[in-house]
Design goal:
Largest sheet: 6 strands, mixed
Radius of gyration: 58 Å
CATH topology of the largest domain: Immunoglobulin-like
Structural class: alpha+beta
Helix content: 55-70%
Strand content: 5-15%
Number of strands: 12
CATH architecture of the largest domain: Sandwich
Shape: elongated
Length: 509
């Protein structure tokens, strides 16, 4: 029962009984004691709390000082957010990468002109340059850098341009011209959009993009496109052709990814110690259209066929009855057809068309001669095709078509040398004929002499028989006549022996 229930509820004028009064006083005494005890406890608690509050105040003041210092320190750090307008770009295009600096809460910041921070952009693939209107610290490569420092504007924004890893050594204007070409329209779309929206390279070809790119490459004033594509071919030919390993070109697109990292710094002075003030990264893709364009369009045998037919018509009049003369005339015509201003890839393509033009060529000359000349020229053309990339990367004392000139020149030189040899052989043959005539005369003389010797031999045989008969008779006479007669006959016998010696010497019977 509460205190009010016990002592309250009285009406005006109603007396309080003693019992109730006594209870009221007792309750007040108990309440007073309880209040005093509680106040004492509260006072003790207040004293303790005051001590703790004082300590907390001290600590809070220290914390506030630390927070102020931290806030001051953190004010020099930023969030770095990177963005582009697209996920994938076509080779030849430039992707604009925007780095936006904000405070750590993501709120915009404003910098004084002389306090603008710098952003270091680093690309793992591709090459960077500063966008127009931004200060940059870079190397001396006009074609782009792997890393570049760009100063923000007063709102904390810095922009870098990223392009595919093709021809960093080429002049900046070449890259700008190629990028402008990719903006050319084809059926209300840019060439870049056609390439990026086509599901496969064949789809891009069927849409006319590859034909438009070939037209730009072959255009007499399309020097930038030729330089760009030729540089790509020199560095990537093994991967495109596929002789060393399976070709990277396939019926599906190949997109190359590049990760770009951006790091904010207070300044761009490498001699000033300065930690990073914030960092961010982004992934950008580039679609390679050059390899598929070469494989499925520019070098495609079906696309080459009209050129093969046209070149065959131009080669036919240069076949003559002389092998070496035909080689020389055809070499001159091929040099005219494959001009030096065609570009590396263009010359390789034209040489391929020339090689095909000799297959099945029909002229009025003997078939054996035509086949021999055609095979020789195809070998010369193939050699020149192989030699073209080598010439592009080699300092040579003499330019031009070295393979074509060297082999055909050797053939013509050989023809000249053979002619000289023929002339010398004819002179020698004339001398041999004269000597032969003299030999024939000597042979006739020897025949006559042989007849005479035979006659002499017959006479000597008769003489020998006579001598032998005489000798026999002498031997008989010796017995009848004196020594003087015998000596004369012996002298005659000696003469006969001399005649026999002569016969033996002459090998006469």
């Amino acid at each position: 029962m509460t205190f009010v229930d016990q002592f309250g509820g009285k009406s005006a004028g109603e007396l309080i009984r003693a019992e109730l009064w006594n209870k009221l006083m007792t309750a007040l005494d108990d309440l007073s004691t309880s209040v005093d005890t509680r106040f004492a406890a509260v006072d003790a608690s207040l004293a303790t709390l005051t001590t703790e509050v004082t300590a907390l105040t001290t600590e809070f003041n220290a914390l506030q000082t630390d927070v102020t210092a931290i806030k001051t320190e953190l004010s020099d750090y930023f969030k770095v957010s990177l963005s582009t307008t697209r996920v994938t770009y076509a080779t030849g295009e430039e992707a604009t990468i925007t780095a936006q600096l904000t405070d750590l809460q993501g709120q915009p910041v404003t910098f004084a002109a002389n306090q603008r921070p710098w952003v270091d952009f680093i690309a793992v693939w591709g090459h960077l340059r500063a966008a127009a209107g931004f200060d940059s610290a870079t190397g001396d490569s006009s074609g782009g850098e792997r890393a570049i420092s760009i100063r923000t504007d007063t709102s904390g924004k810095a922009q870098a341009l990223l392009r595919a890893e093709v021809g960093p050594e080429l002049p900046l204007q070449t890259h700008l011209d190629v990028a402008a070409t990719m903006t050319s329209t084809l059926a209300s779309k840019t060439l870049a959009q056609v390439v990026l929206q086509a599901p496969t390279p064949i789809d891009a070809k069927n849409a006319g993009a590859f034909t438009a790119l070939a037209t730009e490459y072959d255009r007499p004033t399309g020097i930038s496109m030729r330089s760009y594509v030729d540089t790509y071919y020199v560095k990537n030919a093994p991967a495109v052709i596929g002789k060393v390993a399976p070709p990277v070109v396939s019926p599906v697109w190949r997109d190359y990814a590049s990760i770009v990292v951006a790091v904010a710094r207070a300044d761009a002075d490498p001699t000033t110690p300065d930690q990073a003030r914030g960092a961010g990264s982004i992934r950008v893709g580039f679609r390679d259209w050059i390899g598929p364009w070469l494989q499925f369009h520019y070098f495609d045998p079906v696309q080459l066929q009209p050129a093969v037919t046209d070149i065959r018509t131009k080669l036919q009049p240069h076949f003559t009855p002389d092998y070496f003369d035909s080689i020389d005339r055809l070499k001159t015509e091929v040099s005219t057809l494959v001009g030096p201003d065609r570009g590396l890839v263009g010359r390789i393509r034209d040489l391929q068309a020339v090689h095909g033009a000799f297959d099945g060529i029909t002229v009025s000359q003997p078939a054996e001669l035509v086949q021999k000349v055609s095979q020789t020229m195809q070998q010369v053309v193939a050699f020149q095709q192989v030699f073209e990339p080598v010439q592009a990367g080699t300092l040579s004392a003499s330019g031009g078509k070295l393979g074509l000139d060297a082999l055909t020149g050797s053939a013509v030189s050989a023809a000249t040398d053979v002619g000289a040899v023929k002339s010398q052989v004819a002179s020698i043959q004339s001398k041999v004929d004269a000597v032969g005539a003299q030999v024939d005369t000597a042979h006739a003389t020897l025949s006559t002499l042989d007849g005479r010797v035979s006659e002499a031999s017959s006479s000597l045989a008769t003489i020998t028989n006579s001598v032998q008969s005489v000798s026999s008779q002498v031997n008989k006479v010796q017995q009848l006549y004196p020594a003087a007669v015998r000596d004369q006959f012996l002298s005659l016998k000696g003469a006969v022996l001399d005649v026999q010696a002569i016969k033996q010497h002459l090998n006469l019977p």
